[in-house]
Design the sequence.
């Protein structure tokens, strides 16, 4: 549904998107992940034909966003990051207007608007003026607008930003259910969100793709060592030394130092299948340090993200430095 | 041009939902009304609307920017240009719709002032020709102001700067027509005189003359500004 090949976008001298390529199949929900200013919004604006690309080939639903912009626009529901809405209009009025613009037939409009109002849970604010709505409601009005002509592709730029936890849950559930029939590209910088709703993730940093895979593959790729959280009572220095000297342990991170009641917490990294857990337990019993907590810490997408975007950062700076010298 | 009706309706809604519309309507009825009553009727007792028409052209110069400043500057300021231009509508459709809405609003502003003409016919015996041509001229002049204002609004990000730029531009265009000597015959002075709207309105429409050349001047410059706005809006997205 979405094909991007060697896409580059420059704003004057600033390189916002640097030669990225990816593809999204029909019916996929893909998370677009990256720190602020990574170029997520730029890519989305190019896909929705709001701005043209500097170079590269883009196809959305089989159309070129620049030359066949109107066809692309009719096939894409877009929720921009800032959720711009006409503040002086009423919700119903606004959605009717948008439905009309997006070519929903006059006889279907009432039905469609009713449907998206219901879907986004905003039926009760239908008669309110948009400018007086809370951020959460406005976000959902924006989403309803993106859905009103039932487009096969949805491009959502940070759909959960600025919402309270309950609303975040509602929106996430909604996106999940939308993904059953549609192709969804969703950007966010909240990692847990991607893990929850997107089977596939593209991580972008400084305009380049630094990782692209199924979410579970990405987390698995980091899964080369075991990590445990050990909480115990006793002299911190001695415990650290003892844990660090265990065979197979590569790193001990002292996370809680002499907390209330003499509690000490350590993050222990050890080689996989080296039996680190048993050894830790044995050491603690031997020295008579009471075990309070021993937990397995599975690597999260957050680790992948930090890992990949930090490396990219370093590479990016080097590249800039050489450019500056030249 | 499939979406023009829908877009124009939305622009008109925006006009009538803002307090600015009612302030402008009130100003445009009351201020020339005072001039009409105080001077034309009470002091001079003449059956001639020229002074009121002149005055209204001045008021138009100051209120048109307030009608057009919102058109694009607000869309860029609030970001709604992004939702607007990612809906399946063309830039030309958007520009034409906004212009049509402002033209309609201009008509709504002018119509209540017909009351002065009616009063004049009731108490005196004015020549209907200059009044009809003056109103036609006022409308063309206003349409021209609105087109310039819309183009200015497309260039900037805030409404205030749009209004200021438009007023400055219109005053410059007017002064151009006044300071260039009327009897100068060199091509440069003639071109400058032609470029200013002043000599296409004052002393022509106000005297009851409907000259095709002047009608063509107002219509073509307005259309040019509409075209220019389309280009500006497109280019601003492309940068």
Sequence:
């Amino acid at each position: 549904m979405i094909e991007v090949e060697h896409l580059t976008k420059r704003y004057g001298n600033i390189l916002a998107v640097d030669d990225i390529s990816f593809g999204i199949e029909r019916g996929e929900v893909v998370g677009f992940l990256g720190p602020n200013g990574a170029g997520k919004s730029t890519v989305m604006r190019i896909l929705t034909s709001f701005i043209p690309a500097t170079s590269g080939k883009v196809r959305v639903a089989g159309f070129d966003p620049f030359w066949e912009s109107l066809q692309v626009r009719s096939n894409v529901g877009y929720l921009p990051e800032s959720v711009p809405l006409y503040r002086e209009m009423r919700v119903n009025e606004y959605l009717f207007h948008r439905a009309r613009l997006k070519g929903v037939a006059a006889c279907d409009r009432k039905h469609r608007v009713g449907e998206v109002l219901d879907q986004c849970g905003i039926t009760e604010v239908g008669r309110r003026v948009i400018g007086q709505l809370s951020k959460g409601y406005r976000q959902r009005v924006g989403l309803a607008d993106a859905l009103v002509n039932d487009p096969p592709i949805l491009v959502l730029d940070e759909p959960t930003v600025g919402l309270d936890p309950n609303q975040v849950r509602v929106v996430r559930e909604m996106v999940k259910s939308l993904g059953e029939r549609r192709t969804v590209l969703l950007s966010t910088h909240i990692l847990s969100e991607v893990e929850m709703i997107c089977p596939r993730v593209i991580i972008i940093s400084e305009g380049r793709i630094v990782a692209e895979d199924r979410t579970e593959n990405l987390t698995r790729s980091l899964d080369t060592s075991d990590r445990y959280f050990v909480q115990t009572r006793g002299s911190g220095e001695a415990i650290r030394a003892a844990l660090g000297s265990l065979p197979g342990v590569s790193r001990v991170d002292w996370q809680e130092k002499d907390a209330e009641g003499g509690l000490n917490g350590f993050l222990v990294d050890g080689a996989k299948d080296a039996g680190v857990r048993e050894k830790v337990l044995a050491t603690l019993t031997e020295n008579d340090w009471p075990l309070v907590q021993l937990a397995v810490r599975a690597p999260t997408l957050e680790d992948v993200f930090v890992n990949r975007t930090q490396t990219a950062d370093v590479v990016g700076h080097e590249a800039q430095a050489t450019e500056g010298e030249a | 041009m499939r979406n023009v009706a829908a877009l124009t309706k939305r622009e008109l809604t925006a006009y009538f939902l803002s307090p600015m519309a009612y302030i402008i309507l009130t100003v445009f009825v009351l201020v020339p009304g005072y001039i009409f009553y105080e001077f034309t009727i009470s002091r001079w007792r003449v059956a001639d609307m020229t002074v009121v028409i002149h005055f209204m052209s001045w008021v138009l110069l100051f209120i048109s920017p307030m009608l057009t400043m919102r058109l694009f500057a607000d869309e860029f300021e609030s970001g709604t240009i992004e939702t607007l231009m990612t809906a399946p509508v063309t830039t030309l459709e958007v520009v034409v719709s906004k212009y049509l809405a402002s033209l309609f609003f201009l008509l709504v502003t002018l119509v209540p002032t017909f009351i002065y003409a009616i009063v004049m016919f009731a108490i005196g015996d004015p020549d209907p020709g200059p009044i009809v041509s003056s109103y036609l001229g006022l409308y063309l002049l206003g349409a021209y102001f609105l087109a310039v204002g819309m183009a200015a609004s497309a260039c900037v990000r805030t409404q205030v700067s749009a209004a200021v730029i438009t007023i400055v531009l219109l005053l410059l265009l007017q002064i151009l027509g006044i300071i260039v000597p009327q009897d100068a015959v060199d091509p440069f002075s003639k071109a400058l005189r032609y470029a200013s709207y002043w000599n296409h309105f004052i002393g022509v429409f106000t005297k009851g003359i409907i000259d095709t050349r002047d009608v063509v001047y107002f219509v073509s410059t307005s259309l040019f500004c509409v075209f220019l706005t389309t280009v500006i809006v497109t280019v601003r997205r492309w940068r």
Remarks:
- The interface with chain B takes residues 11, 45, 48-52, 70, 73-74, 76, 78, 80, 82, 84-89, 93, 97-98, 100-103, 142, 145 of chain A (CB under 8 Å).
